[in-house]
Amino acid sequence: MKVLSLLAAAAAMFAFSMTASAAVDADAATKAMKDNGCTKCHSIDKAKKGPAFKTVAADMKGKADAEAKLTTFLTTGPKIKMDDGTQEEHKALKDPAVVKNLVQFILAQ
Ligand code: HEC
Fold first, then answer.
1. What is the DSSP string of 6-26?
2. Does residue 69 fall inside a structural domain?
3. Which end of the chain is more exposed for a tag (fewer CB within 10 A), N or C?
4. Pocket test for ligand 1, best of 42, 70, 76 (most atoms within 8 A of CB)
5. What's the domain range around 67?
6. Cβ-contact 40, 47 below 8 angstroms
7. Does residue 9 belong to any structural domain of this protein?
8. Does 7 map to a domain?
């Protein structure tokens, strides 16, 4: 009956990963970041032109308005300062579902 218990374990793990991905879809977030060029300036754990998402998540930790703040940041194209002192508009996203998932993904780092 080893096979059966293995199957049961696999099914339980599958069910767990389904509920986990219902909250944040990491694959969709990763894809959205590639599609929108975010990865040119950001990575999860290394600062590039923009801060690492781990740093952003750490800064926002415990702030009740973190999600609202990042949502505004990612939809309104605020002015940002680059390393060389020049200013440009941050990339703005339109699709609310994509933004929500990305924000939750970033905050979960
Ligand atoms: C041209 C480079 C560049 C691109 C492309 C870019 N960012 Fe940024 N991003 C920055 C810089 C620089 C900052 C820091 C802005 C500041 O602190 O003034 C930043 C800040 C952020 C922050 C932190 C905001 C905060 O309030 O702490 C988040 C989240 C973020 N970016 C997400 C994204 C996402 C998601 C994308 C893709 C849709 C993206 N960025 C594309 C350069 C970029």
1. HHHHHHHHHHHHHHHHHH--H
2. yes
3. N
4. 42
5. 25-107
6. no
7. no
8. no
Q: How far apart are CA 15 and CA 10, in angstroms?
A: 9
Q: Is residue 32 in some structural domain?
A: yes
What is the pTM (predicted TM-score) of this model? 0.84
One pLDDT digit (tens) per residue for the chain, 109 residues: 566 665 566 665 555 555 444 589 999 999 999 999 999 999 999 999 999 999 999 999 999 999 999 999 999 999 999 889 999 999 999 999 999 999 999 999 9
**Domain count within the chain:** 1
Element (H, E) at 86: none
Binding site membership of 93 for ligand 1 (Cβ less than 6 Å): yes
Distance CA(66)–CA(78), nearest Å, equals 16
Q: How far apart are the first and last CA of the chain?
A: 40
* 74 Cβ contact list (under 8 Å, min separation 6): 90, 91, 92, 93, 99, 102, 103
40 Cβ closer than 6 Å to some ligand 1 atom:
yes
Q: What is the CATH number of the domain that holds 35?
A: 1.10.760.10
